[in-house]
Design brief:
5 strands; 193 residues; single chain; alpha/beta; Glutaredoxin; 2 domains; 5-stranded mixed β-sheet
Amino acid sequence: MEKGKKSTKKKVEVKEEKKEVKKPEKIYYATSEQKDLKSFAIVIVVVLVCVGIIYLATRAFVTKDLFKKEETKQDTVQEAVQVNYDKAIVGNMLDKPETTYYVMVYDTEGKFMSDMSILLSQYNAKEKHSHVYTVDLANKLNKDYYDAENENVNAKSVEEFKFGDITLVKVNKGKVDKYITDYDKMKKELGLE
């Protein structure tokens, strides 16, 4: 080579490429039982989804209670809890919270029903009056205490009570104070004459 000339030889770099050795892919073969099981599972899921959709559609469009769930429960509870505190049964007519009160005992389906109802409404219309409870002798719980022929006007306890067609009982501190069976005397006792 001559001095002054540069060598035109190029260096050839040899790059060695590393080739990754690929593992052979695993091939899975499904048996016919596995295929049947897979298709069965898909069918079950589709059926469950369809049943759910039908259920929701029925609640939303037919019964219309899907979005009114709380209101329905509240309405039911309100209807079931209505209690009339002015009515009593013979067994607890001496156990009321007031110190002095009256108990009107009569058959709400009997012949004196209108007379006693008028008497009760007139008395309750007064400005100052004691509380009045009513005991219906037509009620099954009270029927055993009705005996018009053997009425006990001297009864002092629940076990001794035997009522006729109409009775007004004045209770004071849980004890029978007056026992009235005459309509005119009831009016006088209640101050309605």
